[in-house]
Amino acid sequence: MSIPSHSLSQLALQKFKKNFWGVFSLCFIIGIGIIAVFAYAFAPDNSQNANQMHVSIASKSPRFSVTMLVLPSQLEHGQSFFDTLFFGKINTTTEIPVSDYNISRNTIYYTEFATDGLIGLEKEVTVDLAIAPDSLIREQRFLLGTDKYGRDLLSRILVGARISFFIGFVAVFISLVIGVFMGSIAGYFGGRVDALIMWVINVTWSIPTLLLVIAITLALGKGFWQVFIAVGLTMWVEVARVVRGQIISVKENQYVTAAKALGFNNYRIITKHILPNIMAPVIVICAANFAAAILVESGLSFLGIGAQPPMASWGAMIKDHYNYIILGKPYLAIIPGLCIMFLVMAFMLIGNALRDALDVKN
Q1: Is 18 part of a structural domain of the chain?
Q2: What is the band of 361 on the pLDDT scale with cuts at 50, 70, 90?
Q3: Of the candidates 142, 161, 187, which is a domain's last residue?
Q4: How far is residue 324's CA from residue 62's CA, in Å, rounded to a whole number?
Q5: Containing H/E element for 46?
Q6: What is the pLDDT of residues 60-107, one digit of tens each?
Q7: For residue 91, what are the domain limits?
């Protein structure tokens, strides 16, 4: 009787599938990834950065609805479908929340929305004869309410997922490239090369992560990509230490000795023979770095040196509304905080699941 053979990757995949929280976290992360990529397709406010402000309806509770008068603009911006889908619509219309309105022929008489029992100003606007006045009036509902600038909170949450999600990918990619390169050289060659690289690693590690990110961000300038690069440049040391330790433990194995005897160059030995056999702990480290990168970016945005306004960011949303916790509307800060917590927890759970699946001792 023949016994079916399974590769280590197949066995690891089977073990991973049996981990409920690992599979659940993977599905959750994939869902957040889809929302991050197509945020403007899901967001009720698909303007760029979901930045349509209505000061008169600021800080409204969830499920708040209001009548909105939408006045078209003569300005036109030729946007492609993909530009609108991935970067938002350049909104040139004027939206006015109204509490009452009356239409007479092509003139709309309306009362602006006002809070705290106040009565808004009464105004009128004449529209083009080719436009039906009724088409300019619509009912708008804010499922999660509005922020302190009157922007749709749900739309800001969805668009803000893009920064928090992609910061993990960019930071992990940068840390993986630098960390694997430095760790491979240090572990494989040893001697003075190892001592020099370890000195660089120890110096980098001794600097507080947040302080180093702030210094790099100030050197590169405030902005979207600057934050991504700064976070990535601070996370490579842990990858380098893990890769170095793994290479030191396996470089004397028989398959490495055989590769040297066959005359293979050092580059081929490292990339084709050593790295594929030590990537399991590196993958687990990368999952943890995803979570760390999200937290660092949120901290930077909270301090005001991360993603800059009007760009939506979960950390910046907490910064804008943390004082509302004691003003009776804590959800304005709690909702983005919960989003950060759930996403970080998902990456940590999938990291634990990968560690268990890739552990050959179990």
Answers
A1: no
A2: low
A3: 142
A4: 15
A5: none
A6: 999 999 999 998 876 666 788 888 888 888 888 889 999 989 988 888
A7: 64-142
Give 289-325 pLDDT, tens digit per residue.
888 888 888 888 888 877 788 888 898 899 989 889 8
Q: Can you give the pTM of this predicted structure?
A: 0.86
Q: Who's near 261: CB < 8 A, 6+ residues apart? A: none
Phi-psi region of 222 (alpha: psi -120 to 50; beta: other; left: phi over 0): beta
Q: Which of 169, 168, 196, 163 is nearest to 182 (CA)?
A: 196
* 74 shares its domain with 125: yes
Question: 2-32: string of b/e by CB count within 10 Å (b at 16+)?
Answer: eeeeeeeeeebeebbeebeebeebbebbeeb
Tell me the H-state helices in 149-274: 153-189, 191-206, 209-220, 224-233, 236-250, 254-261, 266-268
Structure tokens at 326: 């004691």
Tokens representing 72 are 């078209």
Out of 118, 142, 166, a domain closes at 142
Task: Render the burial of 248-262: b for 16+ CB within 10 Å, e for the rest.
Answer: eeebeeeebeebeee
Adjacency order of strands within the sheet including 94-104: 122-126, 107-112, 94-104, 64-71, 137-142
State the Cα–Cα distance between residues 197 and 164, nearest whole angstrom: 31
The SS3 of residue 73 is coil
Domain count, the chain: 2
174 plus 70 within the same structural domain: no
Residue 284 domain-assigned (yes or no): yes
Question: In the chain, pLDDT over 70 holds for what percent of residues?
Answer: 96
Q: Is residue 117 in a domain?
A: yes
Question: In CATH, what number is assigned to the domain containing residue 212?
Answer: 1.10.3720.10
d(CA 329, CA 309): 22
Pull the structure tokens for residue 202: 């120890």
The two tokens of residue 145 are 């309410």
CA distance 176 to 70: 49
